[in-house]
Amino acid sequence: MLAMQYSFDLAPSVDPDSVRARARDIGPSFEGLPGLRMKAFLVASDPAIYAPIYVWDDDASMRAFLESPAFERVVAKYGKPAFYVMPSIRVAHSAKSRPIRFATQERTALPLPPVFDGSGGDVRSDANVLTGADLTRWESVRTVFWHDAPPAREGQVVFDVPYLIGGLP
Predict the structure, then answer these.
(1) CA separation for the pair 95, 92 (Å, rounded)
(2) From 145's CA, which of 72, 120, 156, 159 has a CA 20 to 30 Å away?
(3) pLDDT tens digit string along 128-145?
(4) CA 102, CA 2: separation in Å to the nearest integer?
């Protein structure tokens, strides 16, 4: 199992609400995609970012998507994204089963050599956590999926999750 994320800084001419609407429109087309365990459409307004995150069964499923017309349409609409793959991920689930509405991400430097212990830190009762390593930037990436608005933290980007496919494994 591996995670993949790409990100676009939206141009000033692109309204984040139009990206949210598009996510709700096209989200169902990803249901049942072979090897896709989860896709969260992440959209932020300040700063304006579109950063979907995927969890795949295996590398072959991820590659099939990246070579598909669906990904070609993403590139045609927003440009070529930088993306990273997290081959080793850890997941922590909250006790609640309510819908996910928000997400936040934190990045911290990995030591040399890059040791990823997968620790996601403390999990609140209202949040799920996906933690992995982005070895292109030597960082641990901790994505927290919230049922309710997350607590405010300086410098933190809060994403809306307008559409979620599957759930954290």
Answers:
(1) 10
(2) 72
(3) 888 888 888 888 888 999
(4) 21
